[in-house]
Amino acid sequence: MKINKKLNLEKLPTHIAFIIDGNGRWAKKRELPRSMGHKAGMQTVMTTVQHAFDLGIKVVSIYAFSTENWNRPKKEVDYLFELFEQYIKTDMQKLYDQNVKLMVMGDYTKFPKSLADSIAKAIEDTKDHTGPILNLGLNYGSQDEIVRAVNHIIQDGQQSVTKEIFTSYLYTKDLPPLDFIIRTSGELRLSNFMLWQAAYSEFLFPKLHWPDFKEKQLEKALIAFQKRNRRFGAIKESK
Ligand code: FPP
User: What is the Cα gyration radius of the chain?
Assistant: First the structure.
């Protein structure tokens, strides 16, 4: 595949994240059931993540299932679990063969046992992989993550913490800073996703529904990222 000439492969973000949104609306537009939107969304996860790794991005985080998603109809939640299991057990094999390491943020042990077991197995099987990292948010909520960190800090008897110590209690403790968050479908919010980690992230909110966010759209998003002037609270030095 020809890569967009405007994309500078030397200046890629290290860690990008996707808030997958619009699977339902994508299906509705086509008069399909919502499940078909999720199925198409899963296909897009596969192609877009593969493309991100092929371009040279080191870490991709994905908001796959939030702590709030349990409030959807049971039928939809069950279907998502089926899709996840198939993805983790079968479709992801190609990524594992490329030395990709799977990490998870969120309490996936609350998922049905066979899904939770296959997630645990994939994490264990890839723990020594040294290639790119796919970090999935599964039963993830940022506020839960922060409260969990505080409780662990208390249990460890810490009297006070620094930013660095606090960060070391998060699911993402071993990951580089989050450079870029993309949320599809035009909604302008974070919805309880990586609130701490997003402190200095850049944001993009493309209008496309997630199933339509393909390789070319990823490249365009990365070009937009490369135009941003990231100052991290400092001022740009004048020469
Ligand atoms: C948002 O669309 C999507 C979800 C709630 C989760 C579905 C996620 C996947 C199928 C991919 C998961 C990826 C991995 C790697 C396990 P929506 O249903 O909220 O769309 P809508 O707002 O248009 O209804």
Answer: 18
Sheet of 202-204: strand order equals 101-105, 133-140, 59-66, 15-19, 180-183, 202-204
Identify the active-site residue in 4, 8, 21, 174. Answer: 21
pLDDT of residue 231: 86
- CB-ligand 1 contact for 42 (6 Å cutoff): yes
69 is catalytic: yes
Write the residue with the smallest CA distance to atom 6 of ligand 1. Answer: 64
- The CATH number given to whatever domain includes residue 66 is 3.40.1180.10
Kindly state whether residue 168 falls inside one of the protein's structural domains: no
By residue range, what is the domain housing residue 136?
15-141+178-226
Kindly state if the Cβ of 115 falls inside 6 Å of ligand 1. Answer: no
Q: What is the pLDDT, as a whole number, of residue 238? A: 54
With respect to residue 152, please indicate whether it lies within any of the assigned structural domains.
no
pTM recorded for the entire structure? 0.96
Residue 41 resides in a domain: yes
Ligand 1 pocket test: which of 30, 36, 38 has the largest number of ligand atoms within 8 Å of its C-beta? Answer: 38
**H or E stretch including 101?**
strand 101-105
- Give 105-118 pLDDT, tens digit per residue: 999 999 999 999 99
User: What percent of the chain has a predicted confidence (pLDDT) above 70?
Assistant: 98
The helix-helix angle for 74-86 and 113-125 (nearest 10°) equals 30
Contact 157, 131 (CB under 8 A): no
Nearest-angstrom CA–CA distance, 100 and 120: 15
* Domain contains 218: yes
